[in-house]
């Protein structure tokens, strides 16, 4: 891991919804090959923060620099930037009218300009990677929630992203489906994918995260190496959060 190269650099971000200050001077970074978990109580701003990274949520102050490109610069091509940062949402966001193969080939062809044959080859490789090659002809509604989320991960990977963002990828799943998604994410981490993950899955955080960012009330309260966060969280808020999460 190149500890000196920030792929994602969040610099003093402020965001308001009307009079509601939802992100307050948030600063953190994700280095190349690093896995950063963002956690905190519901309503603390975690999902909003991760959505600002690829400009799905606008912000009013500060800047975010992704692989050297500023999101605030007028010259920045945001669609092109988004194509290089994979995003996996809580609710899959698959196209229900397309089979799995076409779900994985559409953006490859339209955004990356790949021909049909190359896109299909990539789709087959990635469906096999997430254990779903036998379902390539099926539609999303024919799959379980865990399977759909694995397809969503494969679709994000089909764009050859430089980094992956995960917004609570297991929170909409039945408990027995959570591990099948986390296993794919753990494998990505082992392969060195740069990842920023909003999650309540503290076992996953302990297992693969290099750092943990803890948020409360729109602010980043702690930004610590994983072992420091779990063994000696500095803030009372983080200690309360961990006591609730780890005792359930």
From TrEMBL:
Protein name: Glutamate/aspartate transport system ATP-binding protein
Subcellular location(s) of the protein: Cell membrane
Membrane topology: Peripheral membrane protein
Similarity section: Belongs to the ABC transporter superfamily.
SMART domains: AAA
Species this protein is from: Paraburkholderia silvatlantica
GO MF terms, alphabetically ordered: ATP binding; hydrolase activity
UniProt keyword Transferase, yes or no: no
